[in-house]
Amino acid sequence: MMDGARKSENSETSFDRDKIQWPLSYSLKPPKPGDPPRRWWSHSYYRGPRDRPAQILYSDSLSRSESIARIFLNEPVLGFDMEWPLDGYKSTRLQDKVALIQIACERRIALFHIALHDGQTSQDIIAPSLRLIIESSSILKTGVSVLHADFKKLKEDLHLQPRGAFELSHLHHLVCHGSQNPERVTTKLCALSKQVEYHLGLPLYKGSVRTSNWSFPLNGQQKLYASDDAYAGYILFHCMNAERLKMTPVPPLPKLAESYLPAKMAPITLVQLESTIDDAQSAVVTAKSFSTTAKSNTGRDDDNREAQACRPPQAEDSHAKEKAKEVRSSSSGKSSEPGVSSKLYGKLVSHRKMTALARDVPAYIVASNKVLEGLARHRPANKSQLLKIHGVGRHKVEIYGAEWLQIIAQDLAENPRKTPKNAATPLQPTTSNRGPRIRNDQELLLADSENISKASDFTCDRLESKSDHKDNCRVEPLRSLVLDTIPNAGDIHRQPPPRDHDRKRGIITNIHRSKELHLYHPSPSTGLSFQLTDTRLDTNEAPAENDDRGD
What we know:
Distance between the termini: 79 Å
Radius of gyration: 39 Å
CATH superfamily of the largest domain: Ribonuclease H-like superfamily/Ribonuclease H
Strand content: 5-15%
Protein name: Ribonuclease H-like domain-containing protein
């Protein structure tokens, strides 16, 4: 197991596995006005106290390598990488098998150009202090495929016993998938360039210099390339370790790469985490088993796994839990709120990291997880909709709003939101040329009693002609309370029950100089009618024919 905290006498850095150490004292500095835009990640963008860049130490001899290696002996974590010619396997010189070894800490980068060292054996070309660093299990050598590529050549070609290989791909999968999809935390390798772009904001340059001849003295481009690879391994480890310590619950660090059973062709399997028990026979801990154990210990409910799978890490609070319970207890049992787009959420998280690094501020200053969850859920299309997201104010909209909207629009174009099959079709308003409709007894009571003689006040359909007064009228049944309020109302008498198709309908007929309105109850056994006497409907009082005006 690795030590909990270590501090070297010759260095200014320390490593505490249980404490967030990010950002480091050497942090990414924003570009100055007039600088060209940054396309690739580089160690030269990082500055320490008094704006000092990381120091590059280059060695082309054994004695120089020994003096440089001693500086790194007490460093707990080192970025590690190696270079060699593509046709080095054809050569009998050991210097062509391993041409260059790079190590990096926070403020120094060492380039040991083994190809220029004199000698014929491993002891002649590898400095003793450098050998101690390579064979120490307490000094982490971080990188991608350190065990199966770099350490393999050191063991087979130089007959060293390298230890302390820490695979960054394992930590990358842990912080990206450990909370929601622990079964995806596997030993599958992830390219260093992709990890740098995901966590540090810019891709790592991998051009033709990668396949150049490393046996000759290095030019400036080769030195820059070699320094970037080693320094990226160091910075990535501390960045991702800080992300690990923010997870709930906090999982242990992945084991060293050499902890796995040796195999000629390493199969992809679940990443093994460090055990908190010093017992060689203790059970293997993986992200999946750790997650299951942590949930059972804390009593968390796992009934709604599908909802948890699409929920961003650490984005649920007590208010969301109460709301989910209310939705589940409702009669519909389904939430009308749109779901969170995991792809969009990931893009917003990456943008937040890039912005935080560029502004040299913590990520939560840019936006909280809850804000990013709201953006990924509602996908606002303009600044006014952005202001409706909880936690987004005018200040954030002015600074980050345009970039957020661009990311959301791009994601919406790539992944348009689909309408569920069982979604209810919204009601469409019907248009007609009919007059105002009386919908209940209360609206009828509010009718003007002085103009009650106008038959059009009781109807929902306007009279289409002056002579035809037999238009159907869709009015609600009149109760005794309504009839008592109507002046000049005649005696109410029973009428034969209407046919089924005539229910809830009324007919206005001419009886000499008065109008008679027959109204039917919705009840299958009764119907109502009343007669308006001494009421005259003059010609100029009749409603106009279809005036083509809507409601």
